[in-house]
Amino acid sequence: MLIDLLQSSYFSLFLIVALGFMLGRIKLKGLSLDVSAVIFIALLFGHFGVIIPKELGNFGLVLFIFTIGIQAGPGFFDSFRSKGKTLILITMLIISSACLTAVGLKYAFNIDTPSIVGLIAGALTSTPGLAVAIDSTNSPLASIAYGIAYPLGLLGLFCL
Predict the structure, then answer these.
(1) d(CA 100, CA 53)
(2) For residue 66, is it within any domain?
(3) Claim to verify: residue 137 and residue 86 sit in the same structural domain
(4) Spatial distance between the Cα atoms of 102 and 104, rounded to a whole number of angstroms
(5) Could you tell me if 105 and 111 are in contact, meaning their C-beta atoms sit under 8 angstroms apart?
(6) Range of the domain at 142
(7) pLDDT (tens digit, 9 = 90+) per residue, 32-84?
(8) Tens digits of per-residue pLDDT, 101-160?
(9) How far apart are CA 55 and CA 95, in angstroms?
(10) What's the predicted TM-score (pTM) here?
């Protein structure tokens, strides 16, 4: 019966969201994954062969981006008002260094373009970047590379 339910795309999607929110509420030493846990649950389900149709996957991606925006939006605008120029310069520096590093790695290790784009999006924890990577490359390698780099990007954020 559980196998039949998991083959239902709608059930799988809502199970991923529900389990992600439950995992995200767990705090260890004051830190939690919050809504980012949904992506880890989705990666786990994908590893075991659960397939979500592209339209539902896009819907889930939009919901994830929306929840992150709702959570971070008020603090973003307050910070932007007080330190906008500094934040823009730091952002440009981080993105430029990530792109230069990725291009260097691409040619040094002969990594394909979809994987590099996914690695950049994951390392920068940019889910909208993942959406662009998937649409522009039409390759599942972008989301696989994102799934590899995203946990390390989050770890880097927690260490700051």
Answers:
(1) 34
(2) no
(3) yes
(4) 5
(5) yes
(6) 73-160
(7) 888 778 888 988 888 888 888 878 878 877 887 887 788 888 888 888 888 88
(8) 999 999 999 999 999 999 999 999 888 888 888 889 988 899 889 988 988 888 887 776
(9) 29
(10) 0.72
Spatial contact of 16 and 51, defined as CB atoms under 8 Å apart? no
Q: Give the tokens for residue 138.
A: 């039409």
In a domain, 62, yes or no: no
Decide: helix, strand or coil at residue 31.
strand
Would you state the pLDDT for residue 160? Answer: 65
What pairs with residue 31 in β-bridges?
28
Q: Say which residue the tokens 């992150």 belong to.
A: 68
Q: Which residue has the tokens 């662009």?
A: 132
The residue count for the chain: 160
Report the chain's C-alpha Rg in angstroms. 17
Residues 46 and 86 in one domain: no
